[in-house]
Structures are given as C-alpha cells and as structure tokens.
Amino acid sequence: MLLRACGLPAAWAGQAQWRILQAGFADGTGFLRAWHAWRADPQRPGLLHLVAIDAAPPTADAIRAAAGADPELQPLAAALGAQWHGLVPGFHRLAFEDGRVLLTLCVGELPAMLREQVFRADTAWLEAASHPWDASTAKAMTRLCRRGASLAAPGAGAPLRRELQACGWRVDAVQDDLLAARYEPAWVVKGLAEAPPLQPARAVVVGAGLAGAAVAASLSRRGWSVLVLDAAPQPASGASGLPAGLLAPHQSPDDNLLSRLSRAGVRVTLQQAQQRLASGLEWERTGVLEVRGDDVRPLPALGDALVPWSREATDAQKRAAGLAPDAAAWWHENAAWIEPAALVRSWLREPRVRFVGGWQVRRIERQGERFLVTDSSSSRAAEVELVVVAAALDSRTLLQDRVQVQPVRGQVTWAPREDDAALLPPFPVNGNGHFLPRVPLVERGAWITGSTYGRGDGETALRPQDDAANLERVRALLPRADVAMQAATARGAIRSWSGVRCASSDRRPLVGEIEPGLWVSTAMGSRGLTFAALCAELLAARLHGEPLPLEARLAQALDAARQAAT
Length: 566
Fold this sequence. Notes:
This protein is of the alpha/beta class and 566 residues long.
C-alpha cells in the first residue's frame, strides 16, 4: 500500500540510490515490503536506504509475527530479527544484501531524531496516528525531503493535510484512509536546490590497512573503481597486521561520547565479520568480561535495551575468570576477537577494487577536476576524480599538514596454549589491556595479551620490557592465569608482535573532506576494528548525500574539520 501510493518501485528504476524516511516503524512490514520489492526489481537502485524513527520500536517477535502470514516476507523478517537487538536510544545501522539495503533505525522522539538527519529523502512514510504532527514537526520532516519527493500517510486527518499543504506538499489523493502527496512548493525554498548527483568514477585510496580497505569496499559498493596503493608489498603490513585484536564496546557509567560511538562502530564491524570471515579461524564472537577494579559505579540507566551490550557480570562468569564474587565486573555480549588482516583481505576482494603494493605515494596534486597521484620516483601516476588518504602517519605529509596525527606504539605478547590452559578464562577479559585466551596463531591455539600504548613512540623493534609489562598486567587482572604465563616464560615460549598506530590528539578518528575530491580517513588509534568500517560508511554517506550511519552530532565528533576549529 505504501509502495504503490508513492509510485514505487517504478520511481526508483535505474537510480543509484533511493532514500526513504519513515516516521514510525510500526510492525516493520513497510521496510520488509520495500526490501522485497527491491530484491524482485531488475531495475532496482544500487542502494536502498530506509531511515525509520521510532521512540518505542517493536520487538523482534512482533516483527516476525507481522510477517508470519506472508511467505515472501518471512525470511526477511528472520534476517531483520537476527540484528534486532541492543536498541538503546540513538541510531542503529543494520545492513543486508551485502550492504546494499541499509536500515537506519533511530530510537528516540521524532522531533529530536529529525534534527539529527542531514540527507534528502526521495520518499516519506508517515505513521500519522503515532505522532503529534504540529507545524514545527511537519516543517522539520519537510526540510529533509527533495523537491518531487513522494509521501504516504495512513491515518492522516485534516490537521496533518493542512500542515503538509502549508509546507508545500500537493495532496494527490486520500483513499482508504491513506493520504498521498508530492513535495512541489510553489515558492523558492532556501537550500532546497540540489547539486547534480555524484557519479561514481575512479578513486585512489592511499593505505591498505583497516581504514583504507574499509573505504575501498564502501566506495566499491557504490560503483567506484578503486585503486588501493600502499608502500608495503602486502596489505595490512602496518598496525593492521596485529595477529588478533579484541572488538568490544567502550561503556562508561555516564554513557559518554566514546561509548555511543563505539557501540555504533562495533555493530557495523560485527555485521562485516559475520558476513565475511570464517568463524573460529579469522574471528569468533565470544563476549568479553571487563574487570572494573575499584570503579563500582553502575551501568547507565538505559533499560533492558542495554543488556545485549553491557550488563553486570554473573557470579559464574567471575568464577570462570578466577575473580572473587564481589569483584566489580561487566559483561559485554557484543564482543569478538578478529584477525584484522583477514578483514582487510576480504574488503580488498570487493568487485572494482584493485590493490597495488610497493607504491609509495609522494604527491597528490589537483589538476582541474581530477587529482594526479605520483609515486616517490615520479615514474608512476594515477589520474582520478577522488582520492582518500588513509595512510596512517603518512597522512599528515600527504595532506600537507592539514591533519595532525601522532604515533602510538603497541606491543602484544603471546604463547602457545599448553596443558595448563585450564587455568585460563574461557572468554576474553579486559580492564587494563586485554587478554584473549584462545586464538588460532599456532596448531593448538595460543593466548595473546596486550597491548602497550606508547604515545609519541614510532619504533617497531621488539622490547622485552614491554612483554614484561603485558604479563604484569595479566598478573594483576587474572591472578590464576599468571601461573600459565610464568610457565610459558620458563619454557621460553613467549613471542611478541609490535606495530605503530596512528592517533589524533583527542584519540578519535579523523574522517572527512579536506577539499572537493580529497578526503581522509585515519587516526583509528587502538580502535581500528571498532571504527574503520563505521568511518568508511560515514565517508561514503557524506560523499553521496546518503543518510548517515550515526547521529549528526556524533558524526561531527569524528569530522577531520574539528582540528581546524581548535
């Protein structure tokens, strides 16, 4: 019904993307029917975005029940339900069809959530009975629609019709309690004129670590031909070569900025790992126990929706880690260990992405509407319409000091598991550094711990004192596991890896436009697994005028432009 009232699917035929704004998610069948129509349409747009705003979204069971009578929607409802968890206030990006169908669920009151949007919708669906459609709310919704956008509103009464008409909507029909309208204001609306849609062409991404590979994959899904250049002969040769890393949300008692950003990033990366990596070999969803030490402050009061993210650890979990029952500890369910290089390789296998190693970029020069990218000997060059710099510490030089970054050295320590592995916890533990009890680094698996955090240190040589520091942290965190650490030291089994990460002064990533056609995504610090995919999607969304994967104010906290303002 909603699709037909808005002229879909015919209206989206041949489009690069289609953006639907839905005020009120109802029982989810609107999204499921749009998704099904997209799947069935050979002329479907390359990307389908649906942004749904709802202060009290339905449960996964309610979504499945609503789709239960329709065999075409049942598998889609099951896929949606598998990601339908942890819906605390804020934005939640759910991805389907290899990232070509994107649902951004915005949990919150309609006026506040409308203020966090920065895109132009092609279609709007209004659950008219669910919201007070006063003049200010109608204007806020209209502000997000392009000229010519279609609208459908079941249950619309005369007051809503009047507000829409006052905002420039032409009501086409009211039939069976369904209002259909088109945005055709008879006056010039300031800021409504849109630039021609960006046409994907050729792009160069400088850097083949987590940040660069994630950007390449996001651009490829939008039709770009992407050349990924790196000075090293193989991808993930820098800090992204970490043998295994822990992906976990950062949760604070006051649910601060980093907490909200990290939840958004962890959700996106978990989706990517589930889709792309081999469980048990390249990643594993394990959860993580966070030891809080002397900090006995409670979790933020976000209700049951926080439980899939963070909750108080059980006595059984503490006992399994060798902790006292009264120890302060939280359990984070949405956590996993991941081999970063495996994720990098998967992203670089996307269609239209080509990796070239041993290519040291020396200069990026604008030449009209394009950029000339040359190597260190000036013997090779690439001329492209878009350049994204994701070159870690080299980003500053390539961008002529328009971003400020610093080195952060990290060393991890590991050893093969032996018969004393029963002393180790059955799941990862963090608190002061992190400890992974089993990752497939050798035939029987290994434990790994770290990392050190050396600000301003750009050396990669292994240091015995850093191994000692890592093991000391394990001793303080997990006294029972220290027996296995000492045994590994005694038999000479301790091994190490070190790398130099890139961080900003406020320890948040830098992603954004430096000048038209020149972008940056770097400074992931020690949270590359958390932020690389999120930043790549944020960059692509801003580049193409798509809905953002997180609130506008959170996106501003990652914008590289913040450095120029300080």
